[in-house]
Amino acid sequence: MMLVTDDVWPSKTRLCTQCKQSLPSHHRHPLPAGDPLTRLRSSIFPSRAELDRLAPLVAEVSHEVALYDEQIDRVQHVLEKLQSDRQVLAQYLVRHKGLSAPIRKLPPQILISIFQYVCHGDFANVHPASILRAVCVKWFNITATSSALWARIVVDVPYTFTEWWSSSAEREEQEVPLRNGRLAASQAVALSRQEALDVTFICPRCPPGMSPLDVLGPSHKRWRRLTISEDVLPDLASFDLSNLDELTVKRISPNRDSRRSLLLWRTSHD
To answer: Of 51, 64, 161, 187, which shows the fewest CB atoms inside 10 Å?
Structure first.
């Protein structure tokens, strides 16, 4: 029987172009013709002559496998080192190329116009200005002193189930956007200073002390546009909304596979 045919036996693999070392270092010693898988599935045990030939072959191939494992470990270590070094060099390259980036020459007035476009677009729970301010000291100072960039606040907690606190696993899953929303709202309320606010608050009713409305509430006299989900409408009873220019109330479907909103009511002073 022959364990491996000529066309599938591993070819020589060059490990070093200088020393010419390669694997496998020896060619296999075939046993008498026959399919080893067929022999394994049968009840025929090898003859004494076949066993005498099989023992050195198993020993030699086992040695070859060990050599492959050794070289694979070595190559993997080298590959990991190369990848790590490349990442360091790539970061070095990006940072030094960034020094000459044209955007660094833009005056603050132009940057503010661009930032306003971004900060008044579509987002939820993570305020764009909080991302912009992390780029560099110049952008940090711009976002810190431009209160209008923080005037749009969006807290949008997914309706993935009707009773979101029904289990600890579901509660933990839901608390991630909830915590992000509270943090973003708190930051925007503080940095918007006395700006009129455009607030979107789409959220299921939350347990006491966890609602983003707790951090949005103190700024309610600055609200000019307010979009809320029907669930939190009762929570607004204690707020003075006389300064609102527009109020929109939506009903959100709790369907796990889709998230549809239905406009229930909109009023405007215009």
So the answer is: 51
